[in-house]
Design a protein that fits this description.
The strands form two sheets. Strands 1, 2, 3, 4 and 9 form a five-stranded mixed β-sheet that branches. A four-stranded antiparallel β-sheet has the order 5-6-7-8, covered by helices on one side. The chain is built from six helices and nine strands. It has about 250 residues and is an alpha+beta fold. Helices cover about 20% and strands about 20% of the residues.
Length: about 250
């Protein structure tokens, strides 16, 4: 029996959330795991209310076995295909909490970022360690956005894994300074949450934005820039003023 006939497919609502907005598709697959194994930097949205609303958006549809995919999802598929043959592919899948540390040098103030990441790829806690040894801690309450940062199938993250003990030691000694986050809205690039996370750009906005502000997507008239779209169509962007809780 052919693989495509062995198990019936379900239509999943799939989102690439990059903080200021996101790109949506319907994807036909046998399981949520198959969606995540096929497309990089995406998440499956389970909220029945969001799924019902999405049915009115006129979204493009993709199939994990299809020869063609809509704009955006094609790039996500190609990226996943490129990762699949690399050492460490999928090595972080299945872990509950993940602890990561990475240095970012391309700024006037080089810094080491330590993150506690949940199963959905979003940060739960973060420590910024400056060159003078000062450590600042923050949580989703401090950030304007918190898109998924870590695609656990992506082997690029494997070298940056640390133990919980190391993270907790830094967290305990770090100070909380809310004024560090009062810098206006973040402006992440629409190149995909995992790519933003890999860059770990400095404080505001680059995989460092705050989470489930539980703010629903903004409703406004459409613009060519995609920053205030009323609804997503054919893989276009839908923007919001915080990361919605799906």
């Amino acid at each position: 029996m052919a693989r495509s006939d062995a198990v019936s497919k379900t239509r999943f609502l799939v989102l690439n959330d990059y903080g200021m907005g996101g790109t949506w598709w319907w994807v036909h697959a046998r399981s949520e795991q198959e969606v995540l194994e096929t497309f990089a930097d995406v998440e499956v949205v389970h909220s029945e209310a969001t799924r019902a609303e999405a049915k009115t958006w006129g979204l493009d549809e993709a199939d994990v076995d299809g020869p063609t995919t809509p704009p955006g999802s094609a790039e996500a598929r190609a990226e996943r295909d490129a990762q699949r043959g690399m050492p460490g592919f999928g090595a972080l899948v299945g872990r509950d909490l993940l602890y990561l540390s990475r240095r970012w040098d391309e700024d006037d103030a080089p810094m080491i970022y330590l993150m506690e990441v949940g199963p959905d790829g979003r940060r739960l806690r973060q420590v910024e360690l400056t060159e003078d040894g000062t450590a600042y801690r923050s949580t989703p309450e401090d950030w304007p956005f918190n898109p998924p940062c870590v695609d656990r199938y992506d082997p690029a993250w494997v070298p940056f894994v640390i133990g919980r003990e190391e993270f907790e030691a830094r967290w305990t000694r770090a100070v909380h300074d809310p004024s560090r986050w009062d810098r206006g809205p973040a402006r992440p690039s629409p190149s995909g949450p995992a790519r933003l996370a890999r860059a770990l750009l400095a404080p505001v906005g680059h995989c460092r934005t705050g989470p489930e502000d539980r703010v629903r997507p903004r409703t406004a008239s459409s613009t060519s820039s995609g920053t205030t779209l009323r609804r997503p169509r054919n893989g276009r962007v839908r923007s919001w003023s915080g990361s919605p809780s799906w």
